[in-house]
């Protein structure tokens, strides 16, 4: 799904996040946002999917995620995973009048070049990048009046490590084709987000993506690790959980609003995901009257 929350502020468009997912918990739902992102693992391990590629990451490993790139993470060998992320607007670093921007930052922002990923403590340049990333994340609660200047400087420094070390490459035509497929998937997912509360045949989604139903289903499962139907139901259940916690609607009304016309099926699916009944979930999360 598309992430719509703001990362930072218009004047300081940087979001810093720390996530700790225990064994058995989802690691990171598939999503995308317009901002670029650096993410590094502090503890545990997980399989991270970025576009068409999958990486098994453990403590000391990191990845760069282009703005608009579909990405998520899944448990690996039953392990939990703790990670930090720096999400930022790459255009904040770009000044069209300087050579740095025209030679490196603008091509990166426009998807013409790709940074080496994954990377980490196994290389000297990777260790330097990780040091800069940790310094940025450690400044999340800093009251330093120069915090924004320091974060911006550190982002320049870590991107310079990729440039100096030659750890980047020009994107190929095959990369462009992959990107087109991903955009088709994102279009189908956006359609689900707009129309999840009604019947959504897989054929309708395939048409949005410009694919045959069979091909669409195969590609969708490859990316999302869920069939289209499983993804739609998961999205509906997440919406239902949100509404149970914040609204005064009855459980039956929440089920209907979320796209379930069979209450027994809704209750069964909800309990399988959240390990409690919808009513119990509401009591625990303060919804209702």
UniProtKB/TrEMBL annotation:
Residues 186-284 form the HTH araC/xylS-type domain. GO terms for molecular function: DNA-binding transcription factor activity; sequence-specific DNA binding. Keywords: DNA-binding, Transcription, Transcription regulation. It holds the Pfam family Cupin_2. The keyword Disulfide bond does not apply. The keyword Plastid does not apply. This is Helix-turn-helix transcriptional regulator. It comes from Cohnella thailandensis.
């Amino acid at each position: 799904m598309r992430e719509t929350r703001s990362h930072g502020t218009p004047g300081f468009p940087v979001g810093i996040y720390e996530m700790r997912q225990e064994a058995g918990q989802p690691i990171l739902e598939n999503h995308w946002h317009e901002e670029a992102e650096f993410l590094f693992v502090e503890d545990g391990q997980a399989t991270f999917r970025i576009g068409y590629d999958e990486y098994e990451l453990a403590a000391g490993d990191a990845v760069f995620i282009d703005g608009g790139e579909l990405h998520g993470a899944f448990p690996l060998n039953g392990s939990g995973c703790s990670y930090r992320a720096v999400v930022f607007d790459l255009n904040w670093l770009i000044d069209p009048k300087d050579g740095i921007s025209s030679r490196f930052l603008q091509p990166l922002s426009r998807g013409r070049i790709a940074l080496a990923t994954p990377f980490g403590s196994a290389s000297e340049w990777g260790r330097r990048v990780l040091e800069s990333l940790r310094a940025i994340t450690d400044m999340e609660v800093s009251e330093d009046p120069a915090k924004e200047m320091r974060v911006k400087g550190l982002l320049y420094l870590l991107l310079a490590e990729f440039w100096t070390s030659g750890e980047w490459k020009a994107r190929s035509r095959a990369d462009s084709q992959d990107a087109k497929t991903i955009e088709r998937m994102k279009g189908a997912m956006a359609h689900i987000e707009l129309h999840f509360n009604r019947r959504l045949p897989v054929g309708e989604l395939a048409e949005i993506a410009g694919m045959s139903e069979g091909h669409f289903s195969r590609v969708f499962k490859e990316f999302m690790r869920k069939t289209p139907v499983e993804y739609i139901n998961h999205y509906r259940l997440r919406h239902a959980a949100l509404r149970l916690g914040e609204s005064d609607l009855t459980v039956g009304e929440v089920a209907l609003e979320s796209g379930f016309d069979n209450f027994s099926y809704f209750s069964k699916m909800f309990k399988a995901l959240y390990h409690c009944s919808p009513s119990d979930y509401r009591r625990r999360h303060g919804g209702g009257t």
